[in-house]
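Annex B. Sample input.
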Amino acid sequence: MKIQNILQWVLKLTAAFIMLSTLYFKFTGHEQSVRLFTALGMEPWGRIGTGVFELIAAILLLIPRTTYLGAGLGLGLMSGAIFFHLTKLGIVFDGDAVLFTYAAITFACCAVLLWLHKQQVLQLLKGKF
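Annex B, continued. Sample output.
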């Protein structure tokens, strides 16, 4: 049980750190972030909206009672990021694959967290929350 708890915290902190570390670029209108969302036709509302949802997901991940909600939201957000990288942006965007790599790592962390919290997810789906 202790190993699972440590694993959960590593996954939570990794996903939350990645999502929180990109907020500065989204919220300050960093040129790379603006270029990315312009390429998607979602500037500025997509950049700001994504940042807000990533902030919410990171906070929910770090609260034990809401980890599964943050993981679900994070998984959805990263699914979108991966989709756009594979279809419109390319894995390498603006000269490197860092953003795609961050999305893939966060996706994996959130997927494992959702699996570890599958009982809470099932209860939510059954309407018992």
